[in-house]
Design goal:
The protein is α/β, with parallel strands linked by helices and 380 residues long. The chain is 38% helix and 17% strand. Strand 1, helix 1 and strand 2 form a beta-alpha-beta unit.
């Protein structure tokens, strides 16, 4: 099949860029793929992090990318649409995650007009972004309505999209894959712990920090954890809001020796280091649509303690490869973490997490998006 994929890739960073890049790589194993990407992504004033550029010394790349789109230049949006028409694909695939891209993607799709021979598919990482309202909802509805089909990462997002577009929307669910291809080196636990000088059970909170991710709840849970077990928490990821409230919170509870804050974007080559050193990955989110952190944890054989929100309840098997609990209860969070740190329980959870990574493959994503490879000769 001839496919045109539109979206971010290197030199841009982040989960959507990584997903689109790896999607291109795996689609190209079966199909002919033209990849159109961005010359400029976000204006600096709109990006909450330090930079939208990937600082990795081992960046995730694919070859033959056409860098055509400038987010602030409508002329380039039209050029991208014309390039798609010249290529003549059977399918156009775009990611959707924030309404900022609505005018750009809407213009590209409008250039394709009523071409019924081109299937237009959105891979929705967030159907509706956090704190979206007003014009963002209107833009989201208008642009997504131009597509023929959608891929989402959870049944909750499927229902959210149906509420937005109506019951007739064609929506498939494919959970995010493990993303272990990002990390070239596979660290051994002992090696990673020695590198970070970790000498006690280690919990990992990974990814950019925003209020909805519930880090304050995890900090509040830590005094109860320390009553029973000397543990260490690594908070690893860039703060997308003022970190001073978190640092004051840690200091107020006297947790400076038990919580390590690594406030920066983690390059690809370091991702495996932190997961290998950890015993448990903790996602105390108060709300979320989808998250790939659980799948990354499974890819590195690490179980996850998470709240029962969004896609997390569909990805984590409670009592098998992790634990699930209701959000907003530091006491329950502490109790659950302590149960998981019991040696026999932890060993069993790690073994099941290792098995779980096979549930989240790129082949499954490609099969859902394009269809499975035909069976030669019709043999079943």
């Amino acid at each position: 099949m001839k496919i045109c994929l539109v979206g971010p890739t290197h030199p841009f960073r982040g989960g959507v860029s990584h997903h689109t890049t790896l999607l291109c790589r795996h689609l190209r194993r079966r199909h002919q793929v033209k990849f159109i990407s961005f010359k400029r992504q976000y204006p600096a004033i709109l990006f909450p992090g330090q930079s939208d550029r990937d600082c990795s010394s081992e960046p995730m790349r694919v070859e033959n990318v056409d860098y055509l789109i400038d987010s602030l230049n409508p002329w380039t949006w039209k050029r991208a649409g014309d390039a798609i028409l010249d290529y003549g694909p059977e399918m156009v695939v775009m990611p959707w995650w924030v309404a900022f891209w609505g005018p750009c993607f809407g213009t590209i799709l409008s250039r394709l007009g009523e071409r019924r021979d081109i299937e237009k598919v959105f891979v929705c990482h967030n159907v509706i972004e956090h704190e979206a309202r007003g014009w963002k909802l209107r833009v989201t509805r208008k642009v997504l309505a131009q597509a023929n089909r959608f891929l989402v990462h959870s049944s909750q997002e499927r229902e959210r999209l149906r509420e937005l577009l109506g019951p007739g929307a064609r929506i498939d669910v494919a959970h995010l894959p493990t993303f272990t291809e990002l990390s070239g080196k596979r660290w051994k636990a002992e090696e990673a712990r020695a590198h970070l000088e970790v000498d006690r059970p280690m919990l990992l909170f990974f990814g950019f920090v925003r209020d909805y991710k519930g880090l304050h709840d995890l900090i509040d849970a830590f005094p109860d954890i320390l009553k029973s077990r000397d543990a260490l928490l690594y908070v690893v990821g860039e703060f997308w809001e003022d970190r001073s409230s978190y640092l004051r919170h840690i200091e107020r509870l006297g947790l400076q020796d038990n919580i390590v804050v690594v406030d920066r974007y983690i390059p690809n080559e370091e991702v495996g280091l932190y997961f290998a050193a950890a015993d448990l990955v903790v996602q105390p989110y108060r709300s979320v649509s989808g998250s790939g952190i659980s799948q990354v944890a499974f890819g590195f054989d690490r179980p996850v303690v998470a709240t029962r929100v969004g896609s997390l309840a569909e990805v984590i098997r409670d009592g098998v490869d992790g634990r699930l609990l209701d959000p907003g209860s530091p006491a329950a969070l502490a109790k659950t973490i302590l149960e998981c740190l019991e040696p026999v329980t932890l060993q069993r959870l790690k073994a099941e997490a290792c098995n779980s990574k096979h549930r989240f493959s790129w082949d499954a994503v490609v099969d859902t998006l394009v269809g499975p490879v035909p069976n030669p000769g019709g043999i079943s």
